Structures are given as C-alpha cells and as structure tokens.
Predict the 3D structure of the following.
Amino acid sequence: MPEGDSVYRAARRVQQAIAGRTLDRAELRVPRFAAVDLRGRTVEGARSRGKHLFLAVGPDDRGRDPVTLHVHLKMEGRIHVQRVGERWRFPAHTARLVLRAGDMEVVGTELGLLRALSPSEADRAIDHLGPDLLGADWDPGASTAEIVRRIEQRPSRTIGEALLDQRNLAGIGTVYRAELCFLRGLDPRDPVGAVSDLPATVTLARKLLVANADRAVRVTTGDTRRGRELWVYGRDGKPCRRCGTGVETFRLGGLADPDEPSDSLDRIAYRCPSCQPARATLGQSPTEENL
C-alpha cells in the first residue's frame, strides 16, 4: 500500500501538471460516477491528506457546482503523470481515472477508491483522520500532543496497530511502522501503555516522512545505495544491519470488528529481537541522526 509520502508526491505531480488548466478529457471509469462530465472545467488543485488524494475541479460555465475527486490508492493503485501521446506503460484496462489538460495527462490505475464529491462531502470524508504527518497545518506542539492523546486512549492496544490507525495519525503504512519501531527500539507488539516516550515516537515519525517527501526512493538508514535504504522492512531472516541478529516477521492486527479501519487488518510486521526487545524503553538511537 502506498504510504503518506507516496501520495504526497503524487499530489504534487498532479498539481504541477494540470492545476490551473482546463480539462478536455475526463473519464471516471467506475460505474457510479461514469456519467460525471468534467470537460471544460478548470482543475483548481491537488492535495493529499495522509493516504488520501483530492483533485479539486471548479464549476462549469453553466453554473454547476465544483467537484472534488477523492482517490485512495489502497494496495495496488498508482498515479501516472505524462505528456499526451506518450505510450501508456500499463494495461489500458487498469485505468480508472483519465484526465487530460492540454499536453498533460493524469491516469490513475487500479485505484482502490474513486469518487466525485462536493467540496463539503470531501471534507467530511476525512474528518475522522488524525493529524497529517506531512500536512501544511502541522504544528510541532499541538499536532504531536493530539496524536499522543488519541493513541493513549487505548493503552492495551499494540503500538504497531496504533501507528497504522489513520484515526490516530495520517500517513504511516507498514514500511514506516517497521522502520519507526526499529529506530525507537520498540517491539511492534508492545502495548501502548509500555511505550515510555510517545511524543518522541511521533516526532520521529514525522521526521521520517518529511525526509522522504522529495525522494524517489524511500531511505531511513541514511544510505542511499541500492538494497541498503531500509533497516528491517523486507529483511525477513536477514541479519540486522546494526547487530547481525536475524530479522523476524509476524502478522499483526486482523481485527474482525467492522467498525475498525482497514489499516487495523492483518498486516506484516518486522522486528530485530535484539534491538527491539519486548517492552523496550530504549532512548534515541544514534542512527536517527542519519535521516
């Protein structure tokens, strides 16, 4: 599943490509919204909120109201931005959103969610989310305190599940969870109540995403060489980069409660048994300085 930094970059690419331009092709290839006609309207902008992407389209010349396209990439979704006429490097049948404005084209493939909403409906669609780690409205004190408050409401929940819950903080997926827990010396199965410094964990979470907001390849180790970018994610059975102990994986989550967010479902987690002992209270690691 693309994480908050990936969606942030996608929104920026769309913004740079078609914001302020008039749509001369607009196809929403989902049954419920297939008849929505956005041609002739101006793209007002694109923005992200956590893992959600929004494209604001203005009113038309007949006075019809503005429309906001709400996109969630889920597991397989991608946003492609290219010049009109360039060959699509993906099967055409996977395209769910096609927008063309002048010489630029935006195509969304295998999207998990695509909706055409009013601006107010779009705001309500995400009013349950916690503070966005990459949000323009981020406040180091207030935003961090709000995330901590939300996480601490369920002290017996595992920290790994709490970090994936977008109602607590928006933007973290399984990659950042693995890397964040490693850097903080936390077993993802530790209960929230056993985590000694939640504000420091939140601060580092934002630092990780901000450090990668402009990178094509995600890096948490400070080493951009291929295959050395991450500490533990994707390294099942391989030696820990810090101590040499074999990295282990396990499934975490799998809640059956229908009221729980999809991010609470069964997800893979990574851990170095030596660097992330159960109920660890390790302080800041020197490796954090490499971000």
The helical segments are 4-18, 119-125, 142-152, 159-164, 174-183, 198-212.
